[in-house]
Design brief:
This protein has 475 residues and is an alpha/beta fold. The protein has two domains: 7-227, Spore Coat Polysaccharide Biosynthesis Protein SpsA, Chain A (Alpha-Beta Complex), CATH 3.90.550.10; 233-440, UDP N-Acetylglucosamine Acyltransferase, domain 1. It contains ten helices and 41 strands. Helix 7 crosses helix 8 (204-211). Bound molecules: uridine-diphosphate-N-acetylglucosamine (UD1) and calcium ion (CA). Calcium ion binds next to loops.
């Protein structure tokens, strides 16, 4: 019984992407908030490829820091072409003799499991030395063109080296290939930079292999999108818009309603329940889950949050937090990391919550800051309450019991505890714990000065009359 070859992948991420005009290596530019390199790595992992080698080059530190030792990397000290980049992984490839190796571009994020595994199946079935993943596109400008003859493919020609006739070919090289590792290694040693760009083209290994009588073949991707890459900022925007509408499309199939897609950007790792309505200007990034029957938007930014069912969010920014069923939040509210907004809570305009639990049915209706606090259920916050959680050196917590009533403009100077059912008087600065059911008021006694306003008003009227008289005399 012959065993199937093992698989591994080399991802080319050494290029600068000059047209981006940035210090960031091109594969680190983001599509839907995720670096393109991570999309490519995910596609490998989704396909069951565990052994991955990333070729770094331009500003390698940025990529190495991002990968954080999770993947093998090799360094390409100068950009001498895609063939040269793969040569940098020669030692690593030598350790993978007998494997099928997938080569991918770090700047083509839409390569997916179906395409990778479809091409692998084709590659192994036909015992190919190389299988290039191709696509038929309307506009092939900038891509390498696939040259075909009666029995398959005869090579790949780059745009800059192509004849006018070759430029008309619409089947293009995606930059993704399956190679037999041993054959790739030997072919790499035979390519030279004799071309318009003076580079070592990886694509030239096809001519070498075909010249030796090896089988080279193409696997045409059923979805031309999978080969799209970004060469400049316009290309990056196109990738983002493509990905954006892919997600929106999937969500509509899952029963999500979009009243308008303007400014709606929802990441790939977002799950939204059926019957939820998304309005314009909603951005969801990272790991987000939203339950059924919610109304989100307009204008929300949600990052790494778990949102329950029947939640309403209007002009809310929420990060790394949990929002439970039935909560109604907004407009103009920020929920900062570490918060849990429990069932049926109401949070109104200009409220900020940070690292706090807000218990069930509590209302925080206007102009309030709740930071580092544990708030019970059924609590009512008056307008303008501030938890004073920071003394310039350390943060302290505020604890508020169930059914407490916090008067307007109360300052709660933490650490402080307000008991169950306790009240604070409007305008109080509370520095001591308040027992259950008590009222705490901290204000000076009001002083009433009789006739003060009356006197002031009389003075103002006299001054005004004087001015009118003068103006009249002057004119
Ligand atoms: C390459 C292919 C082209 C294909 C296209 C698909 C070659 C010669 N051409 O062209 O046929 O249609 O991809 O997008 O292979 N890189 C390095 N080191 C280098 C050069 C590039 O690591 O010295 C990396 C880049 O970071 C990038 C990838 O290789 O991720 C592709 O490089 P790029 O310069 O964009 O290749 P293209 O000219 O687009
Ligand atoms: Ca490219």
């Amino acid at each position: 019984m012959s065993s199937k070859p093992t698989t591994c992948a080399v991802i080319l991420a050494g290029g600068q992407g000059k047209r981006m005009k940035s210090g960031l290596p091109k594969p680190m530019f983001e599509v839907l908030g995720v670096p393109m390199l991570d999309w490519v790595i995910k596609a490998c992992e989704d396909s069951g490829i565990k052994d991955i080698c990333v070729v770094t080059g331009f500003n390698r530190e940025v990529i190495e820091k991002h990968l954080d030792g999770k993947y093998h990397t090799v360094f390409q000290p100068e950009r001498l072409g895609t063939g040269h980049a793969v040569m940098m992984a020669s030692d690593w490839l030598a350790e993978h003799k007998g494997s099928s190796v997938l080569i991918l571009n770090g700047d083509a994020p839409f390569i997916d499991k179906e395409t990778i595994l479809g091409a692998l199946w084709h590659h192994e079935k036909h015992n190919n030395a190389v299988t290039v993943i191709t696509a038929e596109v309307d506009d092939p400008t900038g891509y390498g063109r696939i040259l075909r003859h009666e029995n398959g493919i005869s090579g790949i020609v780059e745009e800059k080296d192509a004849s006018p006739d070759q430029k008309l070919i619409r089947e293009i090289n995606s930059g993704a290939y399956w190679f037999c590792a041993d054959k790739l290694l030997s072919a790499l040693s035979e390519i030279s930079p004799n071309n318009a760009q003076g580079e070592y083209y990886l694509t030239d290994t096809l001519f070498v292999l075909i010249g030796k009588g090896e089988r080279a073949d193409a696997y045409i991707s059923s979805d031309p999108k999978t080969v799209l890459g970004a060469n400049d900022r316009r290309g990056l925007l196109l990738l983002n818009n493509t990905a954006r509408f892919d997600v929106i499309d999937r969500l509509m199939d899952e029963g999500v309603e979009f009243t308008c897609t303007d400014g709606v950007t929802i990441g790939r790792d977002v799950h939204i329940g059926a019957g939820t309505v998304i309005m314009q200007g909603v951005i969801m990034r990272g790991r987000v889950s939203v339950g059924e029957g919610c109304v989100i938007g307009p204008n929300c930014l949600i990052e790494n949050c778990e949102i329950g069912r029947h939640v309403t969010l209007n002009s809310v920014q929420a990060y790394d937090s949990v929002i439970e069923d039935g909560a109604k939040i907004g407009p103009f509210v920020q929920i900062r990391p570490g918060s849990r907004i429990c069932r049926d809570v109401k949070i109104g305009d200009f409220v900020e919550v940070k690292n706090s639990v807000i218990g069930e049915n509590t209302a925080v209706s206007h102009l309030t800051y709740v930071g580092d606090s544990d708030v019970g259920s059924g609590v009512n916050f008056g307008c303008g309450v501030v938890t004073v959680n920071y003394d310039g050196e350390k943060k302290s917590r505020t604890v508020i019991g169930d059914n407490a009533f916090i008067g307007c403009n109360t300052n709660l100077v933490a650490p402080v505890k307000i008991g169950n059912g306790a009240y604070t008087g409007a305008g109080s600065t509370i520095t001591k714990d308040v027992p259950d059911g008590a009222l705490a008021v901290e204000r000076t006694t009001a002083r009433i000065v009789e006739g003060f306003g009356e006197k002031r008003l009389k003075g103002r009227i006299e001054k005004n009359n004087e001015k009118l008289r003068r103006d009249h005399e002057e004119n």
